[in-house]
Amino acid sequence: MKVLLTGGAGYIGSFVVQELAARGHTMLVVDDLSTGHREAIPDTPLDVVDIRDEPALMTSFERFRPECVIHLAALKSPEESTQNPAHYFDVNVSGTVNLLKAASRYGVVRFVFSSSAAVYGTPQMCPVDETAPTAPQSPYGESKYIGERLVTTQAATTGMRHACLRYFNVAGAAPDASLGEYASGEARQLVPRAVAVARGLAPTLKIFGTDYPTEDGTALRDYIHVVDLARAHVLVAEGLDDAGRCGTYNLGRGEGTSVLALVDGLRRISGAEVPVEPCSRRPGDMPASWADAGLVFRTFGWRAECDLHDILSSAWAWHNGAPRTG
User: Fold this and answer.
1) How far apart are CA 117 and CA 249, in angstroms?
2) Which H, E and C letters describe 109-132, residue by residue?
3) Does residue 197 contact residue 277 with C-beta atoms inside 8 Å?
4) Which entry of 140, 145, 167, 249 is annotated as an active-site residue?
5) Cα(135)–Cα(88) distance, rounded to whole angstroms?
6) Half-sphere exposure of 104 (CA within 13 A, CB side)
């Protein structure tokens, strides 16, 4: 299958590239390298294109003629999106519109969209399944929800087979430490921030909220290994030969882990102290969120295989290696 992958030089995208290659697919990566890294996908054809550049995007489609699009390219920080919402809508929404125009013009049959659990906002109950109300609490989450609606609306009009994948909290690295998340400024996600403290690169790990109605007072999240996530993308893309499988799917381990439990796990793996600094809750933070991922298992046979130890040990091995920045 010929797959055009946007954002394929990024953290998640580079793992999807590996999985696609392992399964014998032909690829073209479209990435502007604003956060991606060429060295993460050294042997994969790459067009350095901003998805907001419609003419350049059309040129890539004209030359490659993909059968399938996996759309990962996006800005991804809820916190940052509240400070610059227009930029998030420009990239995440306008870019998706351009991609759908190209997909329609060049007869793309399958379209896999990278969405987010952020579309749910604060869940009314956990685990969260795909029928839960959507109530995004940030421009980032809103942009992902709009993206879903754009994809499903076009699919209803053209017959394009599609899947929208709602990720929970992605972390981890390759088991052999050959690939992982490149550092780019100050880390925003919990796992790389915790690893930085364990490595002595930061004095304390700030924990935002220690008074939640949870067992230890810290927030519960569903952490999924990036390798499992990449495998899901390819399995879903391949499985869209059946139009009855089109839809929206959660991707998570289906288990809530508290911030302090994650920190304790990293302490055991690293042997480091990882001192924590309790801080006030941030606006929009929620007490708990984890997935019911039963639908994707029933439909495609996918379930997460890596546990929290796998996530933390691989992240530690990757980040504790030679410094990787960009």
Assistant:
1) 10
2) CEEEEEEEHHHHCCCCCCCECCCC
3) no
4) 140
5) 17
6) 16
Whole-model pTM: value is 0.96
> Which DSSP string do the residues of 54-92 spell out, in sequence order?
HHHHHHHHHHH--SEEEE------HHHHHH-HHHHHIII
> Would residue 140 show up in a list of annotated catalytic residues for this protein?
yes
Here the tokens at position 183 are: 């550092």
Q: Assign domain 190-221+254-293+302-319 to a CATH class.
A: alpha beta
Over the stretch 213-271, which tens digit does the pLDDT of each residue have?
999 999 999 999 999 999 999 999 999 999 999 999 999 999 999 999 999 999 999 99
Token reading at 112: 């896999």
- CATH 3.30.530.20 is the classification of domain 2-171+223-251: no
pLDDT(313) > 80? yes
What H or E segment, with its residue span, contains residue 247? strand 247-251
Residue range(s) in the chain whose domain bears CATH number 3.90.25.10: 190-221+254-293+302-319
Task: Report CA-CA distances (Å) from 23 to 50, 234, 248.
Answer: 27, 9, 24
Contact assessment for residue 300 and residue 245, using Cβ atoms and an 8 Å cutoff: yes
Q: Which residues pair with 164 in a beta bridge?
A: 113, 248
